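Worked example

This section walks through a single chain of length 204. The input is the sequence exactly as stored; nothing has been trimmed or padded.
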Amino acid sequence: MMHFAIELLAWLAISAVIMSFAEHQIHRHLMHNSNFLSRRFQPFKQTVESHAVLHHGHYRAIFSDEPVPPGQDRGLRLSLKEGFLEALPVACLIATISLPGAIILVMVVCLHHFFWNIIHVEMHKPEQRFFSSWPLYKWLARHHYLHHRYPNSNFNVVLPLADYVLGTNSRASKADLKAMYQLGFLSLRPAQSRLLLETLSDRP
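Given that input, the structure is written out below as tokens.
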């Protein structure tokens, strides 16, 4: 029983690492750059245009704006169905050595897409959901804010491991820190808040 539990935990960790690198590479190469697929297939071309051009064009000037009615935030969401289908080929390979590992991978991919949809919408269309004050969410929001400031970095949204391993994690400037504080992504005590604003008030 203990051996089986350890195996499940190991596959959970492996699947999270796989998902982090998949998220990074798909976001970087399929959503941001013209590539072999986008030059030949319309759906991939639309992905680049909707994300790199429209999404980044809108949220570079302002990181968050007013919430929109359900159904009108499609550009901020991933398809759980597509994520499930995309995970199946890799899951089939893993199933040749471990059926539980294959099942866990599919679950991790679906959970990733679920969490992406929740937090990505909250970042850009904030509704002050129950998790919006959590330190983990604020850390992810700061990470993603820098992606919109510097589009060639911080490609991870949910699992930022790959950004650190592959060297695409960007550092916040003083102006970035001030903006993140104003957005509520920096949790500081009152004295720290005053000191930060005084320090940054006349600096870029």
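What to look for: The chain has a mean pLDDT of 87.
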